[in-house]
What we know:
Elements (H helix, E strand, L loop, with lengths): L10 H11 L6 E7 L2 E6 L7 H6 L5 E5 L3 E5 L5 H12 L9 H4 L9 E2 L2 H7 L11 H8 L2 H29 L3 E6 L11 H4 L4 H15 L3 E6 L3 H10 L6 E5 L8 H10 L3 E5 L21 E4 L4 H14 L2
Parallel strand pairs: 6-7, 6-8, 8-9, 9-10
Antiparallel strand pairs: 1-2, 2-4, 3-4, 3-5
Helix pairs in contact: 1-3, 5-6, 9-12, 10-11
Amino acid sequence: MPSEGRNHMGSQDIAELILWALGGKGNVRACGVCATRLRFLVNNISAVDRESLADVRGVLGISRMGLYGIELVLGPGLVHDVSEDIGKLTGIRSTEDELSDFNNAVPVPGLSIRISTAKSIEKAPADDGDEDDGEDDVDADEEDDGDEEAVDAEDTEDDDDFDEFVRSVSEAEHEVSLLVINGPNINMLGIREPDIYGVETYSRLLELCHEAAEDAGFASCTCLQSNHEGDLVDWIQQALGVYDAIAINPGAYTHTSIALLDALKAVQIPAVEVHISAVDEREPFRKVSYVRDACIATVAGRGIEGYRDAIGLLAAHLGI
Length: 320
């Protein structure tokens, strides 16, 4: 954990502490700033340390937004500097589209934490260059002890609510989702070389995947197909924090694309490589598979039924 034991904490120090409490910069999917608030979308809500967030100097309040949103109140004199430093530390400069899940979310009742005035002043970093007029200190000194006790009691209740929220989200995440990615020419099934790829159509393949996913216990199944390598890479990257398993038939990109291998290695989502034909028994160049090193298994030569096998392997791997 970054040290908070510095005499004068700057915005970068605060940014580092916030990122640590959010579960590390790798857990941050998107971030933005609005007036006095920092807004984050995280991949894993259970990795967020709410108590550590509340202890960061300058953080005046915390709100939960939807399933994966965290909103921090910092105050107008600090929020933009911290936002800039978070951008530098994470490399994330989120657009409105990337923050749409946050902007469309609603606050979770009982999970907003307000920090008392005295605590806010105590944790506020020194403002270099601006003289303190002393008014806030007077307000803090005059705050009633009974009010602080009430806030402390409320914080305790918030802790319990937050823990319950994390448990509920974790249970919801057990309803795992599947992504099926198909590469070039898979959309031509039934037309393309039926002696090799069979007479079943791509529409039938989609039906089979949804049926197999439901039978295997997946809560949802999304099927995507493209003839463009960049699309496949984008979909793999965008699956992070959204899908729990990937069944992928990269088509001809199997034998050429290091980019797909790198994408699968980057997201670390369990994946199974699928091929309709027995690629290892065909032309020598088809025996090469770059994506195989990033997959837990390969299914080949079973026609479109191989997708059912792949989905079953993924379900078994995830324990559903």
